[in-house]
């Protein structure tokens, strides 16, 4: 886990634990009313806390802790409320406290907590003595777990421990790789009014229109600054109704409390990486977790054979804006022309220079080479790849323009560029 996680003195959590026990002494049974998660009706339940344990680094006596892990066993009569509703009813919402329902052996954290210490066992119990029985230990710290290799805390992500462990296995196999970029003060500083570029401002307006929370809007400022470096020239866009999923160039960003949609990388010819970006929090870590294909990923094996050429004008790849009218509607997209040989690229450069000259423009076109995974930067800029007379749709907009039934995968793009009947190295 990133070193940016904030830790607090042990005494801070002792006071929180004492307050939780005092609340249970005062009222260990709550009657709750709540809306059914699906049907339009009100449900009710009588919930009784029967036992409370403290776990984690506090239970081991650590002098500094990142949070207070508490396991609460609750007897429920009636419909079952959400864990969040129950914990708020009994304890409010104390900061830096993580409450799990169940027992140390089996609880909502998804992992066993064998070192948990029993603190509250019922009204009138001596919980003060139980807390005092845990001796501070300067050598104690946070227990290391395999998932600590993941940059964010489990509660920052909308996924489960087994999914996180699965992602770690993919990394060990070389199928994915990642990096973590923390948000420093410079990145977190708000962009001045009017400082957003056109596509950046469009995404901001869209998210505001979709009624996203302030937490999502707050992420746009550091992300905008970061993407200007990682995706120079990349435009921002977001699908309607997906205010927590936005894209800039070849980077797809999941915001708020994201899952781990690693499958999005498979075959996607316009996607270089996905970015996992939880809400900014006081405790942290705060930043962007960038996940890419690893060296052993089938797409990377296929791309390793790619050697192609493209045209550059004014220092930027030459992208053709294509408009197509059908059934009274205008469909538009971006086309990137690729060449299998340098000679064909030079011939293409001469053609485009002549065409620009005939329209009164003085433009020079140069041929640049692209190899391997660098191709993903180019394909992230377009909807259609044109190789010779063939148009290859790599987005849904490109599919509409070309009339193709499906969006082409990376392996299909490689076949078109190499002329091979089957991409070697793919399973």
UniProtKB/TrEMBL annotation:
Listed InterPro entries: NT_sf
Domain of life: Bacteria
Protein name: Nucleotidyltransferase
């Amino acid at each position: 886990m990133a070193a940016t996680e904030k830790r607090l003195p042990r005494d801070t959590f002792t006071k929180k634990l004492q307050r939780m026990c005092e609340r249970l002494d005062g009222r260990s049974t709550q009657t709750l009313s709540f809306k059914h998660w699906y049907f339009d009706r009100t449900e009710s339940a009588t919930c009784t806390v029967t036992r409370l344990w403290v776990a984690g680094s506090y239970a081991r006596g650590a002098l500094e802790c990142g949070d207070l892990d508490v396991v609460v066993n609750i007897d429920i009569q009636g419909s079952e409320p959400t864990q969040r509703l129950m914990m708020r009813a009994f304890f409010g919402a104390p900061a830096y406290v993580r409450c799990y329902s169940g027992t140390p052996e089996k609880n909502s954290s998804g992992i066993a907590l064998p070192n948990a210490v029993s603190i509250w066992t019922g009204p009138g119990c001596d919980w003060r003595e139980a807390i005092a029985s845990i001796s501070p230990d300067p050598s104690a710290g946070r227990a290391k777990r395999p998932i600590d290799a993941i940059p964010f805390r489990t509660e920052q992500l909308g996924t489960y421990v087994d999914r996180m462990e699965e992602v770690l296995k993919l990394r060990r196999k070389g199928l994915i790789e990642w990096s973590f970029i923390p948000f420093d003060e410079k990145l977190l500083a708000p962009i001045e009014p009017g400082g957003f570029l056109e596509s950046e401002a469009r995404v901001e307006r869209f998210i505001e229109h979709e009624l996203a929370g302030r937490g999502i809007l707050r992420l746009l400022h550091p992300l905008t600054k970061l993407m200007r470096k990682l995706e120079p020239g990349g435009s921002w866009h977001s699908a309607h109704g997906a205010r927590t999923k936005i894209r800039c160039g070849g980077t797809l960003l999941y915001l708020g409390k994201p899952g781990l949609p690693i499958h999005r990388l498979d075959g996607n010819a316009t996607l270089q990486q996905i970015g996992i970006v939880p809400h900014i929090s006081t405790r942290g870590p705060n930043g962007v977790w960038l996940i890419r294909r690893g060296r052993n990923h089938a797409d990377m094996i296929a791309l390793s054979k790619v050697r192609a050429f493209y045209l550059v004008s004014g220092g930027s790849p030459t992208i053709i804006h294509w408009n197509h009218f059908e059934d009274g509607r205008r469909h538009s997209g971006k086309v990137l022309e690729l060449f299998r040989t340098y000679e064909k690229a030079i011939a293409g450069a001469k053609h485009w220079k002549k065409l620009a000259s005939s329209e009164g423009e003085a433009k020079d076109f140069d041929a640049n080479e692209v190899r391997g995974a660098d191709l993903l930067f180019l394909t992230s800029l377009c909807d259609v790849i044109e190789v010779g007379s063939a148009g290859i749709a790599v987005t849904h907009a490109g599919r509409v323009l070309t009339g193709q039934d499906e969006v082409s995968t990376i392996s299909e793009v490689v076949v078109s560029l190499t002329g091979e009947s089957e991409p070697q190295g793919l399973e």
